[in-house]
Amino acid sequence: MGDDLPIGMVITADDDNVTLNIYCFLMFDVPADARAKLIPELNIINNTINNGAFYMDKDEPKIYFKIIQSYMDGAPSVSLVKHLVMVAFKTVDVNDGKLKDLIPAGSLRKDPMYS
User: Fold this and answer.
1) Which residues, 6+ apart, have CB-to-CB distance to 27 below 8 Å?
2) Model confidence at 107, in pLDDT bands (50, 70, 90)?
């Protein structure tokens, strides 16, 4: 599991779509030459996850995890938000090591703030 790096998280409410959006970002950069190898692996991992998905933006060297939860007729409860935050953290923690292992040795660039 990913005990060596912190996990960044942003939580937003989208009033237009009536969703609670949770985004986690892994605190390492993916070198350009390793991205093609990671994309199929992200798909394999995503197929095993019940809530949320990992993705990479083609313009950024980061891997993200997101959970989008829709709600109606009022705000999400505190217990739902806490549950989704824990699901997000646990899912990232369980899978970030698998993703880091796919990056060639010596080319993993950790966020300098956490190195």
Assistant:
1) 5, 6, 7, 8, 110, 111, 113, 114
2) low
